[in-house]
Amino acid sequence: xxxxxxxxxxxxxxxxxxxxxSIPVDTLVTTNHTTKIKGQTVAYxxxxxxxxxxNEAGKPIATLFYTYYHRTDVKNGSERPLIFxxxxxxxxxxxxxxxxxxxxxxxxxxxxxxxIQPYGFKSNPNSILDVADIVxxxxxxxxxxxxxxxxxxxxxxKQFFGINEDIAYLAEWLTTFVSRxxxxxxxxxxxxxxxxxxxxxGLSAALQENQWMYLNGIIMVSPADYKVIRVGGPVSSALNLxxxxxxxxxxxxxxxxxxxxxxxxxxxxxxxxxxxxxxxALAKGGFISAEEKNTIAQKxxxxxxxxxxxxxxxxxxxxxxxxxKDLLRDQGKTIGRLDSRYLGxxxxxxxxxxxxxxxxxxxxHSFTPAINHYIQKELNxxxxxxxxxxxxxxxxNNDNDNTREDLRRAMAENPYLKVLFQSGYYDGAxxxxxxxYTMWQVDPSGKMKDRFFFKGYRSGHMMxxxxxxxxxxxDDIRTFIESTTSxxxxxxY
Length: 493
Prior knowledge:
This protein is of the alpha/beta class. The protein has helices spanning 2-18, 95-98, 163-180, 195-210, 226-229, 234-238, 241-250, 256-259, 263-283, 290-304, 308-313, 320-326, 358-378, 403-413, 432-442, 467-484; strands at 27-37, 40-54, 60-71, 82-86, 105-107, 121-123, 133-137, 146-147, 188-193, 217-221, 334-335, 343-344, 418-424, 452-457. It contains 16 helices and 14 strands. The strands form three sheets. Strands 1, 2, 3, 4, 7, 8, 9, 10, 13 and 14 form a ten-stranded mixed sheet that branches.
């Protein structure tokens, strides 16, 4: 009877402890794999785990979930480029580029990026793992990354959720990671998608100036430049027009004169109009002459696929929401925000914006099952903690956004540092022309413009979901890495 009682107590305690769901603070699971990339067999190791973020007193206040891929069939691993990969949001996990772009596995999707069943993943024959090792990092509250109790209380979330706060703790975390993995000798790169563009621009200076870690290159994938987006005004509005033209071209809504041209042959004309004519017209506001307003409206209708009436009713300043709703209104369809190739169906055709983001619902359809299955089965990382595709990070402190200047300063301080921009023409959230504008504005002196490179793709925000662009975009990163290796050349002007 006594033994039965003791057993029952043990069982109850065990069950109670099993109900406490938490992520390990500092842990690592290692698995070994082989794959084929560009026809070559590549052996690699995946290290999946968590690494703490410490406060000034040396106590863990958060832990970040990461996956680190490094090739094992090379003689001198220290010479291998090391790439730190971030997605955006803010509040987005690293899942997107992890299992759809640069990593060794990609989604089970069709060639245009649409979900197919059975859900899952397959080998990525275009992964850059053949030429570089990659770390996919999840900031606090994304993926499995979480804040931790300190002395029975949760830390102040303000120290994580803001432009500069995010940069500060991630820079510290990266330094610890590099020391733990003994990668100080390696050429280092940052890649950031969407808000990750803001993040890596800021990290470039924070790493160099506060951690004394110098970079060879930064890759900006569909970058979000909030100095333009949040401010609004004539420049922000005008920069949307080339994207409108691209989306309208894809959906065959342009006049024959433009529709019969190839996409990249048509866009320069629209870009020139946006800079030379539309910005000055919008700057005049309500004081623009009726004649000029009508002339500009006629051109905007021609380039956007919208009616002259729609352009005039919006006073030449067409909101993106309205464009996504109006372009195919006559067909009873809406178009996607992050990738305007995707179509949606609304409750009613009237209105000024779509009911939902057609592209994002499609992506979550295929990404969520795949990443959960992949981490637990392929990488053998077991946890009951929920994988946050998007995590709670609001309110987010947007004050003192100096990241564009941070990048300029980092490049000036480091003659090795170059920047690659990658954008999809059909991205309506962080448009390709906005990315070009950011590139133009980083260095007003023009003294470093030969260290910037831009590549455009015939897809959207996640250009890599389209198989043709997956191939070319990864190859563009390979070329960029090759062009940024020092090859014994000293870092000097």
